[in-house]
Design brief:
Layout lengths: L2 E6 L3 E6 L1 H6 L2 H10 L5 E3 L17 E3 L76 H6 L21
Parallel strand pairs: 3-4
Antiparallel strand pairs: 1-2
Length: 167
């Protein structure tokens, strides 16, 4: 297999298989790698559409402008991940941990976020149209106000639907 390197925090390089190859080997192998290399890892513009990534540990990963449409990310750990401009349209993020994640301008339209934790997640310009956040934890009205949504977006009880959202 071809060897590449991924950039990690402190300008250190970790030799490894290509990110796509490693992820295609399965969540168990990826999580074993993450236990050994817990620093931030940088991915950009990777395609993981329709991938089965339930229970994956992607904490502190920089995953910008990537395609994760219809990806199974149930119980995923995405804490403090930078997910700017990434496409999660129709993805399953039930019970995912997105605490402190940066989702600036991410597309979460039609995503299932029931039971997900979004404590201090940055949602400015995030597309939540048609997303199910009905049992999401840690979500605030202030976060939702920064995002886009519509009449199909399901919000947790007590979260006020912004007046500027399309009904």
């Amino acid at each position: 297999m071809r060897m590449e390197s991924l950039e990690v925090k402190k300008a250190r390089r970790v030799p490894m298989e290509s990110p796509i190859a490693l992820l295609k080997c399965g969540v168990e192998r990826w999580n074993a790698f993450r236990r050994e290399h817990s620093d931030s890892i940088v991915f950009e513009s990777i395609i993981l559409a329709d991938a089965q990534l339930a229970n994956i540990d992607m904490h502190s990963v920089l995953l910008m402008a990537s395609d994760l449409r219809r990806t199974n990310l149930t119980n995923a750990i995405l804490e403090r991940a930078i997910l700017r401009h990434s496409n999660f349209r129709g993805s399953d993020l039930r019970h995912a941990i997105l605490d402190g994640a940066d989702l600036f301008h991410a597309d979460l339209s039609g995503a299932d976020l029931r039971g997900a934790s979004l404590v201090s997640a940055f949602l400015k310009r995030t597309d939540l149209t048609g997303a199910d956040l009905s049992t999401a934890q840690g979500l605030t009205t202030a976060q939702v106000t920064e995002a886009y949504g519509d009449g199909r977006t399901k919000l947790p009880e007590g979260i006020v639907r912004p007046a500027n959202w399309i009904l």
